[in-house]
Amino acid sequence: MKKSLFTGLLTLTACVSATNIAAGAEYKVKRNDTLWNIEKAHHLPFTSLQAVNPSVDPLNLQIGSTIQLPDTYTAMEGETFWTIAKKLNVPVQKLQAANPNVDPQNIQGGTVLVLPEKKQDDKKAPKKKANKPATAIAANKTSDSPSVKTASGKKFTYKRVIFSKATAYSAAPEENGGWEGVDYFGNKLKVGTIAVDPDVIPLGSKVYITGYSFQGLPKGGMIAHATDIGGAIQNNRVDIFVPGSPEHVSKFGVQNIKVYVLK
Fold first, then answer.
1. Domain coordinates of the chain in residue numbers?
2. Tens-digit pLDDT profile for residues 143-194
3. What pTM value is reported for the model?
4. Pfam family of this protein, just one (predicted)?
5. CATH fold for the domain made of 21-114
6. Secondary structure (3-state) at 258
């Protein structure tokens, strides 16, 4: 349930090394580990581990399993994506894509950036094996723009997938920071409105949500828009607006959902 407007900004920093670059490594999951506390312990940006470990279910980490840590770069004051990309000889578009929650107009000194994964396809293959690299390249292009099919049969390409815990809120003033029936931008609350942590899902994002089950919401999944925030909505948690009384909405409880952040 949303309680008050979220005004804090999560800031992740790390000690700056001589080169500002930290190479990724493997980490073995221990008891009580979560992706969040592993990221925090290694000074990594939130959701970065999920991006480099897409097959790992963040809600079901297995003790002893291996998590890949990403290569990172710690920004210095005054740097931009362009200057960092030029310094590290990486495409600026890929650097920005690897850090979707970093404001390109406001990169603070000490901000940890995830470096794009290096592809191992730079070596030229023998001529008689020319078809194999071509196949690999085609597969990479497909994976760069994955798509999801909605319950209505439409296909949408998406940037990333987030496994979340979902709660629900009503239009009651006590659940909206004293305002009745409007989102953060003053728009009327409606089915498809969700409250998010802007550091995880930027405000204005269009998403596709699956996994929930509740009367008053579309069956099978729904397109939603991140136009609301709340003090209790932090990290991967999402609050879904549901029409009805607070008593009815409270029956939603806490549910596991899958959020596709659409392009």
1. 21-114, 149-262
2. 456 999 998 899 999 999 999 999 999 999 999 878 889 998 888 999 999 9
3. 0.49
4. LysM
5. Membrane-bound Lytic Murein Transglycosylase D; Chain A (3.10.350)
6. strand
